[in-house]
Amino acid sequence: MTVTLADIEAAHRTIADHVVRTPMLAAPKLSALTGASVWVKYENTQVTNSFKERGALNKLASLSVAQCSRGVIAMSAGNPAQAVAYHAKRLGIPATIVMPVTTPFVKVEATRACGAEVVLDGETIVDSQVRAETIARERSLTFVHPYDDPLVIAGQGTIALEMLAEVPDLDMLVVPIGGGGLIAGNAIAARGKKPTIEIVGVEAALYPSFWNALRGEALPQGGPTLADGIAVKNVGRLTLPIVRELVAEIVLVNEATLEQAVNAYLTLQKAVAEGAGAAGLGAMLAKPERFKGRKVGLVLGGGNIDPRILASIIVREL
Q1: Sheet containing 249-253, strands listed edge to edge, beginning at the edge strand earlier in sequence
Q2: N or C: which end of the chain has fewer CB within 10 A?
Q3: How far apart are CA 72 and CA 303, in angstroms?
Q4: What is the pairing mode between strands 117-120 and 142-143?
Q5: pTM to 2 decimal places
Q6: Are 152 and 258 in contact (CB under 8 A)?
C-alpha cells in the first residue's frame, strides 16, 4: 500500500498548527431522520470551507527550497484550487491553477483572491490536467494532484484520526468519493486505528466511476450534478487498490436525494453543505436500512455551494 497509518500520523503532525481542528459533533436531528446514531465532522469550517486543505498543505510542506522557489501548479474546478492557492500564498510559494473554461466565475475569483495565477483552459478537468502538466514541464513547476498523490492521500486521512480520537466507538464512516483521495486516506487511518470499523463510500449516481471499476460494470457517466466536487470519471491509480481492499460498499445517490441531504444539513443542523459534502448523508437517506442502529461518522466535506443553487433547493424542498 502506498500510504500507511504512520504516514497519516506524520501528516497530522505536519499540518496540525495550520489547518482548523474542525468540530466533531453529535447530530440528534439527523439521527432521528435516519434511524442511526449520527456524528458529523464539519470540514466546511476550514478557512477555504473544504477538507482539501489537509492534503494540499501536506504536499506543499514536503517541497524543497528549490521547488518552493520555482512554484507549484494544480488543476481544479473548485475546492482543491482554493486549498493549494491559500496555503501556497501563506508559505510564500508561487501557485498556478489551471481551471476549465466552464468553471463558475465565483470559483475563479475565489482562487485568484487566494493569490494564485489562474489559467482557464479546456472544457473538462481532464483537459485542464493536460494543460497543467504541460505548463509544469515548461516552467519546472511541481504538480500538485488533487487526489492521486501519497502525500495528499495522507493529509486527507487525518480527518479519521481526529474523528476516532473524539468518538472511538464509531461503527462506520460514510465518505464521499470523487477521485478517491479522501476515502483512501480515511480508510487507511480508520482501519489502522480500529480494524473492525466499516467504511462505506458514496458516489453521485451520474458519476459511478469506482462502482464501475470495482464491479467491472459500465454504467454511463456524465451530466450536470449537484455533487460537482465528486463528478470524476477517472478513478485514481493509487486510490483504486486502497478502496478495493478497505471499503465495504459503494452507494450511488441520485440528484433528488443529494438535494434532500443538502436541505437536511441546512434546516436541521444549520450547516451549509455543497452537494459533494452532503453525499454521505445522502447515502443514509437512500439506504436507511443499511445504517439503522449503527453509530455513524459523516464527513461534511465542504460548504462551497452557489447560494442561488442553495436557494432553489430550499424552495423545492419547502
Answers
A1: 24-26, 37-42, 295-300, 172-176, 198-204, 249-253
A2: C
A3: 25
A4: unpaired
A5: 0.95
A6: no
